User: Fold this.
Amino acid sequence: MADATLQHDAVGHGLPGAYEAPLFGAYSKKVGMWLFLASDSLTFGALLFAFCYVRIYTAWPTPFHVQSIINSTIMTGCLLSSSLTMVMAVFAAQRSDRTWTRYWLLATMAFGTAFIVLHGMEWSKLIGEGLTLPLFPKPAHAAVGEMVDISKNTPQFPATFFGLTAMHMLHVTIGVIYLGVIAFRKWFLPVLGVLWIVGYLLIPSDNVFHWGIHALGLGLIVAAVILFLKPKDYDAQDVEVSGLYWHFVDLVWMFIFPLVYLLSTKIT
Amino acid sequence: MHDATAHDDSKGQYFWVWGALLALTAVEVVLGYKQIFSPVRMLEVLLVLSIIKSALIIGYFMHLKFEKALMRWMLVFSVTACFVIMYFFFFPDAGRILRLGVQ
Amino acid sequence: MATPATVHAHAPQGFIRKYIFSLDHKVIGIQYFFLALTAVFVGMFLSLLMRIHMIWPAAVLPLVGEIKPETYLSLLTMHGTIMVFFVLTTAPQGGFGNYFLPIQIGAPDMAFPVLNMLSFWTTFVGFIVILAAFFVTGGAPLHGWTGYPPLSALSSAGPGEQLGADLWITSIAIFCVASLMGALNFITTTLDLRAKGMTMMRMPLTVWSWFITAILGLLAFGVLLSAGILLLMDRNLGTSFYVPLVVVNGVVMGHKGGSPLLWQHLFWFFGHPEVYIAILPGMGVASQILSTFSRKPIFGYRAMVYAMLSIGFFGFMVWGHHMFMSGMSPYSAFAFSLLTMCIGVPSAIKTFNWLGTMYKGRLRFHTPMLYAIGFVSLFVSGGLSGPFLAQPILDIQLHDTYFVVGHFHLIMGVAAIFGIFAATYFWFPKMFGRMMNETWGRVHFFITLAGTYAIFMPMHYLGMAGQTRRYSQFTEVAYQQKLLPLQTFMTYAAIITIAAQFIFVINLFWSMFKGPKASDNPWECTTLEWTTATPPPHDNFGGVTPVVNHGPYEYGVPGAAKDYVMQTDPPTGSAH
Assistant:
């Protein structure tokens, strides 16, 4: 096993080894991540195709107010900027500048967290207005208005909205945890645990995120298992590979944003 | 990795890409409100813009532009081919449901 | 980097790290193999219950008691799902692929050993979850392995559609994740860890088949994952992706505006490549064995590779032939029909090359060879009914009849199983260091071959006579009375064939402990796994990395000392 890792690092560094030159000319971790992303892009692609499929034969409502669009545009800006800071983190890691790698990763995580928080607030606002799924927890006082009608008459609208954005939000959350583990290793786990518990206690129980926050708990468990299995110091390759994942999350949002938000803007 | 130094001096290009992405996003948002195009045309324009944006992200941020040609083509081809196939077979059906008026 | 590397540099000690949570691809391969062996017996038991119920509907059976129509549907659902996912996908790819892909390319292990271990244990969890569906309220789901909504999306649609269906979908989703991890590991290993001289065109066809299968899995399972997520949302969050306005038992369901066709598209976008995921490794194994036991180079190595590649490529464009009767756009049906016919071409090339390999060879009829020939036979007879079903016009008559059941059981089920048997008899000496019993292997082969033909060939006639699949009882239906003798015959054949499988299991376990010791290369085969010790050491080649000088199938080379040239033999003038 270790031989595989060692030899294979030799391959990655382009040293003459006992192996054929790798066909893709990159080290294995990078190839593996690219393959995962190819697969994941099909997962998202299938979701987007399902969305478009339903949308083609359904009379589609256009309820998003200016605030929603402004909010989502800021979110888009956050993600795009986080990609830039990620690139900087990769550069710093390649210079073996650990301090700055950590700072840039932290900046990326901050942007990502900002995205999640903004998105969560957006969700809560829409659910409060009545855009909801039948089995979401009911808000304390029943809403009235356009969003309620949409949920009733075109259930596909909230279904696709929440489905697509939840899947994406999950990916962003995984991304932030991933970067946190890369940057801080096991010292990130307590932070994650505290966030999970505090989030669960603070978010009121009629909010979906009261339950959604358990994604952090799952992430905590998975991260702990992986750190237990591979207790190593992450190097420039790991930073670059985590960067690939992060950029992919950004990329997916570039499709979700226009399809879900911009094509449903309310024109007054 | 090995060619880190070769790209280090061109850090500026990433800021350009970042600026271009933000600008394209702004264009999309404006288009969303201006309604210059009919809905279907609008969808196409937005999708083309999104594909340009994702190409920028994949090419520069994800560094695929600087990878080996074989890797570039294999990955892009396999994923794109799947989407093209899906496109050709999913949407005629959706349109058919619309025309048949199934509830 | 250095610290963990030195920790793991030697073979791990202790039972748990060595045999349970092992990172060694060989142990993981054997774990996959035994998982599939367990699953195949569960699946076979379910099929036995179905066959018995079909001719003796009143019989009270062990473990399940009296079989009600919905119990029958549960049986067929679980039989299909367990067989397709946990046997046909798990054994050839996860089992033999894991064990032999790294050895055959000269690598010490997979590219990501930890991921490899995780992928096995995720598969294992998936298997436990699907078995749990038997024991929850309402029992196992009714919707067949294809899980068509609205039936699969409404918990009030039937007794098995409550928690059982949720568990079913969860298990499939878990399996998707496990397969993704496995697939990207396989691809990366093949791309990056080939020994010096092992160029792509010197890889054994088995490696090619696992490689292409992994690519198919990588692209197909992602789509199934999102289809499953949407179905789970329909079931548990009340969304309506797949469910139109429906009334169940007089109650209007809260769904509206969904399209069941959407599920069918997404499912079969995965489902058709899945067929090739099941059969391609069998093709690779058959090529390897036919060449070895005919003592001839494989006929048209490059053609074989390109045929597999084009089968994989076309495999993504034909999913609609499962949906001719679904109300899909007829123009799409036309395109799908044409593309499906196209797949016959590479399949025929492969068959031709297998026959060409055997032609004028010095055939050695050991058990693996018998199974490889059986594979070709089943592949041809199952494949021939493919062009019938590929035509929308004929499909109107044959859709959802026993004709379809016969077709896919022969080509995807039994042919792939024969590939697994061939691989087991062929590689058993390398895996466990002992030979399997030849005589009992032959007995097992002839009973199984005759038995599977006896079970599945009559199904074609039943189908053409109009007998529909998934119906629990035919004994009370007047116009199907005349078909009952054939059904009875099939049931007896099934009982005998299933009984014969115990010969295999006993042979397997007996040989594992009591069989004669195997030499390093008992079949005089050329590929890399036969150059190392039996069973292979922890890092496969005992600290060295082999250097490859020859193609994979150099048998009967003129002027050579032996009738075969190992891939690692020093280069000679006569060999290319």
User: Anything to note?
Assistant: The domain at 28-264 of chain A is CATH 1.20.120.80 (Four Helix Bundle (Hemerythrin (Met), subunit A)). The radius of gyration of chain A is 21 Å. Chain A has ten helices and no strands.
